[in-house]
Amino acid sequence: MTDSPDLTPAVPGSADVEPADSRLWGGRFASGPSPELTELSRSTHFDWRLAPYDLAGSRAHARVLHAAGLLSDEDYAAMTEGIAALDGDVRSGAFRPEPGDEDVHSALERGLMERLGADLGGRLRAGRSRNDQVATLFRAYLRDHARQVASLVRELVEAIAGQAERHLGAPMPGRTHLQHAQPVLLSHHLLAHAWPLVRDLDRLREWDARVGAESPYGSGALAGSSLGLDPEAVAADLGFTGSAANSIDGTSSRDFVSEFAFVTAQIGVDVSRLAEEIIIWNTKEFDFVTLHDGYSTGSSIMPQKKNPDIAELARGKAGRLIGNVSGLLATLKALPLAYNRDLQEDKEPVFDSIDTLEVLLPAFTGMVATLEFNTTRMAELAPQGFALATDIAEWLVREGVPFRVAHELSGACVRVCEERGIELWDLSDEDFAAISPHLAGASEPGGVREVLTVAGSIASRDGRGGTAQARVTEQLAELRSRI
């Protein structure tokens, strides 16, 4: 086997300086790592997205090194210029990781030394470790993308609220166990899918506040720094409100990652529940919705098909998001303090969760916003399946009948209807009277027949959280105030 080629570039203008080793840990080793170890250790294929955050950390770190007297004014000025130049090259794509770079940190240190020379470029490493670097920049990256995910969730909530507003007053069959239960307003049902997403927004805000209060920069490898640096200053520079109180916890804790993964999984689950209903509603048997052509697909063999692919993909990707948090927790469950290399596996699951939601949510929002509802079909089905039986029982309660008795009498009405193949409103006044004297005079003013309409049933549910139109209108305003 031939030796691995030396992929480390020479430092420009430094002929008397040994080429910089892009590894950050090789001083005590007599030989370089084996090709197999190099391949296993390399992480630039997924952690390169952290490069802008790593460079932001380097700028903040250079400032505290200067403040501590460890960089002269001239060195600090040259250092900041070098970091800025490298940042520009990273963003333009002119600087990229090379096969010899182990991770984003070593690649950027190599880039800085190429621009500044090994002596000045190497000074930036003082007082920090890859452990506190990655713990901090990973937090910063997730905070930024949490805001992006929150913005996309907010747009979905607004799309749902828009449909609810457009269909105020339209009834539909409310279901439990997928069986007809009671009539509700379509708007009420749609908003029931919006509220979980609003809670997801709350979770993201609360998560951000917790994560933002604890920048690990300054924790070093695990024990902190002896160089008189100021972790609070670095934290403020990077947009944090405070620094970690415990350096071991700062470098080794990843509960912020697992919590973020959970929130993304919960968003996926909440989206998937609406997706499942849209899939069902789009069937010929339900015929509740029509998908916009731009947000549906066809079949390669059946020309009549119009498939709810976005909803199906949302349902499938929810499983993927759940898998990401499950795998991450399995990685974390038995790690001793402090840092362990297992934590290289903490990034890809949440990177995947972010990428999944950032491509899924815009498509799903577009599908929801362009749905056409067959409100005539929904209204026809709203009272069917004896959905007004509870209204009979509650009418009896208002007449002074104990609910236990009222429930039995309402059930008796349903039984008679089932035997005859009719609906509750088809019962005659004589039928009601025969079932119970409490139901006599069904057609008289204030009689039980007055509650045997969808409009009457919905209007009667006028307590907070109910499906009456006045309450749904208030609910819509309350929801919008929360987003």
Automatic annotation (TrEMBL):
It is an enzyme of class 4 (lyase). GO terms for cellular component: cytosol. Its EC number is 4.3.2.1. Its main location: cytoplasm. It catalyses: 2-(N(omega)-L-arginino)succinate = fumarate + L-arginine. GO terms for molecular function: argininosuccinate lyase activity. Keywords: Amino-acid biosynthesis, Arginine biosynthesis, Cytoplasm, Lyase. GO terms for biological process: L-arginine biosynthetic process via ornithine. InterPro entries: Arg_succ_lyase_C (IPR029419), Argininosuccinate_lyase (IPR009049), Fumarase/histidase_N (IPR024083), Fumarate_lyase_CS (IPR020557), Fumarate_lyase_fam (IPR000362), Fumarate_lyase_N (IPR022761), L-Aspartase-like (IPR008948). It is found in: Cytoplasm. CDD domains: Argininosuccinate_lyase. Residues 39-323 form the Fumarate lyase N-terminal domain. Pathway: Amino-acid biosynthesis; L-arginine biosynthesis; L-arginine from L-ornithine and carbamoyl phosphate: step 3/3. Residues 386-459 form the Argininosuccinate lyase C-terminal domain. Residues 1-24 are annotated as: Disordered. Belongs to the lyase 1 family. Argininosuccinate lyase subfamily. This is Argininosuccinate lyase. The gene is argH.
